[in-house]
């Protein structure tokens, strides 16, 4: 068997393996949990950004202390 032909088969096999590993069934429980976790991370990141913006924005009570 010629070496270039074997190398071609090897490259095809490796690309097929990579593609198979990247594809996941939509009903895969692990994938569903991962998708939910990523969605929640996005929500929390947005909330943190909004809270930071609110904290940096001077408001009517900036510099005042609460009464004891």
Q: Number of helix segments? A: 2
* SSE pattern: HH
The residue-averaged pLDDT reads 83
Q: Note the main sheet.
A: none
Strand content: under 5%
Structural class by sheet pairing and helices: mainly alpha
In quaternary terms, these chains amount to: single chain
The amount of helix comes to over 70%
Task: Give the N-terminus to C-terminus distance in angstroms.
Answer: 88 Å
Radius of gyration: 26 Å
Based on CA inertia axes, which overall geometry fits?
A: elongated
Low-confidence stretches: none
Could you tell me the number of beta strands?
0
Descriptive account of the structure:
The protein is mostly helical and 68 residues long. It has a domain at 25-56. Helix content is 71%, strand content 0%. The protein is built from 2 helices and no strands. The chain has helices at residues 3-22, 29-56. The longest helix is centred in the middle third of the chain and has 28 residues, at 29-56. It is elongated.
């Amino acid at each position: 068997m010629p070496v270039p032909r074997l190398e071609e088969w090897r490259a095809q096999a490796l690309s097929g393996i990579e593609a198979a590993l990247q594809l996941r069934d939509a009903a895969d429980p692990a994938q569903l949990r991962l998708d939910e976790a990523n969605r929640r991370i996005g929500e929390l990141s947005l909330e943190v950004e909004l809270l930071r913006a609110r904290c940096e924005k001077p408001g009517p009570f900036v510099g005042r202390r609460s009464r004891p």
